[in-house]
Every structure is written in C-alpha cells, then in structure tokens.
Design goal:
The chain contains 3 helices and no strands. The chain is mostly helical and about 130 residues long.
C-alpha cells in the first residue's frame, strides 16, 4: 500500500478512537446519572476512555512528528521529496552545463571565423611585398 493511503488509514483509525473516547465518556456520565449507578460500570468506561485517549495521543504525536519532518524538508522514510529535489537540482546543473558548452562553442566559432578573415590593405600572412 502507498504511504499516503497508509497515512489516511491511520488518521481514520485515530478518528474512530476519538469516537470511542467520546462514547466511553458519555457512558460514564449516563452511568453516574442513574439513581442506582454501578460504580464498576463507571470505572470500566473510565478505563476504556483513558486507554483509548492515550492511544489517540500517541498516534497524533506520531502524525505531528511526521508532518514536522515533511515541512522542514528533512528526508524521512517513505518520502520521495529529497530524491525528487536532488533530481531537480541535477537537471538544473545539466541545463546550465549545456548552455555554457553552447556559449563556448559559439565563441570558438566566432574566434575561428575572425582568424580566417584577411587583414585590410593586403597585409595578410605570407605577403611580403615591399612598396619601394
């Protein structure tokens, strides 16, 4: 299963645990509001509430830690962000190198063309004609 789907399932599980907490808390109040309330039942519902609340706290802490890692850009298990960023930077460096090579090639051609052009007034290479 993919990481985002797993995260959604964990959040769904947390939501169900919160519902269980609220239900247990409600059952405690229902039991305590009875004329002949059962202390044992109230304690059982209270224990279920506390146990489930602890699980919710732990799961939410894990989710918050995960989101903190993601938002700071630090690589973490299950994330492709760091690899994607490295790849993006490599492509940027490659394009920069290509543009520099093209620029140097253009300058080389310009320089080569400048060497082929004969200087004005017939004073080119190998032209030793005296004017006397």
């Amino acid at each position: 299963m993919t990481a985002p789907m797993e995260r959604i399932q964990v959040l769904d599980s947390i939501e169900k645990d919160i519902i269980t907490c609220l239900h247990s808390a409600g059952q405690v109040f229902v039991e305590l509001s009875k004329e002949k309330s059962s202390l044992k039942q109230a304690e059982n519902h209270t224990q279920t509430f506390l146990k489930t609340l602890g699980a919710v706290e732990n799961k939410l802490t894990e989710q918050i830690n995960y989101l903190t890692q993601v938002s700071t850009g630090q690589p973490h298990e299950g994330s492709g962000y760091a690899s994607q960023k490295v790849l993006q930077m490599a492509w940027h460096r490659l394009e920069h190198a290509r543009s520099r090579v093209n620029e140097l090639d253009r300058l080389k051609l310009k320089h080569m063309q400048g060497r082929r052009v004969q200087p004005p007034n017939g004073q080119g290479f190998g032209n030793n004609v005296s004017s006397t």
